Amino acid sequence: MAHAVPTDGRVFWINTAASIPSGWSRDTDFDDVYLQGVTDDSRGTGGGAHIHTQNHALIGVAHTHSVSGASVTPGFTMTRKSNIFGSTVSALTHGHNASTSASTTITYADDSTSLSSFEADPPFVRAIIIKPDTGDKLIPDGAFCFTDQAEAPTGFDITGSGGTTDYSEKFILGALAAGDGGGTGGSTTHTHDDISHDHPDNLHGHVFANAGLATSSSKVQSAVTANVLERIHHEVSLYSETLSDVSTEDVVVDAGSSEPAYMNLLGIENTSGADALPAGVIVGYTGTIASVPDQWEHYARIGARQVRIVKNANEVGHTGGSNTHDHNLQAHQHTHAGSHDHVEAEEEFEASASEIGTPTVTLPDTTKSHTHVWTIGSTQPTCQSTGAFSCDSADGRAAYQELIFIKYEPYSTRIRGGLIKGGAVAA
């Protein structure tokens, strides 16, 4: 029967399960899922989830240590015999000034953590998805469907008018199994709570500190005075260290969109007091595109989108939303629980010279060992407040079931492939 809702047609019952009209049955395939449009015959496939998680990763810190060398007295006198009158040259006490060690970046291991699972349903109204038991049924009184016309057909009211409940800017979500229609919920945006995390840092060290050159002046015990320049150069390097005292921190996650890709259609309700099937109504369809019955058309404009209910004609046909989304993660900072230092390693390099214009003094090799005390500055690194961090993009659609949509276009409204609208023919 052409002038009827096909048996693969689906309309929406926003009422109790007990009040489902006679001759109609609940389609349990659509319990607790959204109606996802498709562009081909892949209908019948489900996907999505009402909760989802996303991952992010973070990194980075830099710090320096100061290194100073104490001026000390050698452990024993450094003596050398001169070839001038057999004099003894005594080494003087000397010290070194060490420059600050080079800045080093502690590279933390990437830490990917899962953001807390969160319900990401868009604004919704729950409806029982009902199907006709036979092929001779019209849309029941009180049932809900859609249209792309500028106004509701006779006997139907736009959602929110004529005493009907306003479901504008909502999506149809199947009622819970064995449950009733009519509940609302969801939100246009959602966020996630971050699971506290820290970062194990990799082994790190610092470039050596240059201790500079020290000069000692010695007097030869004779009539001749010679200034002997003893130049001793030290390089102090810091052994590598691994830290494990990075603070545990949360990350603030900005809200992301919950709305899937959608197209707006007028939501309309049969308020005529009787079953009816006016031209221009749009319903769901679980059959193939090729099986769409005569006087009905595959409504391909919806494509791979869901229907968003609106009540204003100037919003009909508008599209928006996205099937994927990500979140912006605000900058955050870690701290170290305490300071740390490094054990030093020292290398010594020597050179001897005499001042120009003074007698040359030759000093044979002899014991000249001495020590320095190197103080390593204890430093508490300050972590970067903006490291490299990201949040992955994810398919954010809540649980859905795929189908196509069909529009009722009886012969009485057609002229050679055009539609009569307001007395005019439109393609």
Question: What does the secondary structure layout of this molecule look like, with pairings?
Answer:
Layout (H helix, E strand, L loop, with lengths): L8 E5 L10 E3 L7 E4 L8 E2 L3 E2 L2 E3 L4 E2 L3 E4 L8 E3 L6 E3 L13 E2 L7 E2 L3 E2 L4 E9 L11 E4 L8 E3 L12 E4 L9 E2 L3 E2 L13 E11 L13 E14 L14 E2 L4 E9 L10 E5 L10 E3 L7 E5 L8 E2 L3 E2 L18 E11 L18 E4 L13 E2 L2 E2 L4 E9 L5 E2 L2 E4 L2 E3 L1
Parallel strand pairs: 3-33, 14-17, 23-26
Antiparallel strand pairs: 1-14, 1-24, 2-14, 4-33, 5-13, 6-12, 6-31, 7-11, 8-30, 9-10, 14-18, 15-23, 15-24, 16-23, 19-22, 20-21, 21-29, 23-27, 24-33, 25-33, 28-32, 34-35, 35-36
Organism: candidate division TA06 bacterium SM1_40
Protein name: Phage tail collar domain-containing protein
What is the alpha-carbon Rg in Å?
A: 41 Å
Regarding quaternary structure, what we see is: single chain
Structural class: mainly beta
Overall form: elongated
* Largest sheet data: 15 strands, mixed
| Total beta strand runs | 36
Write down the overall mean pLDDT: 72
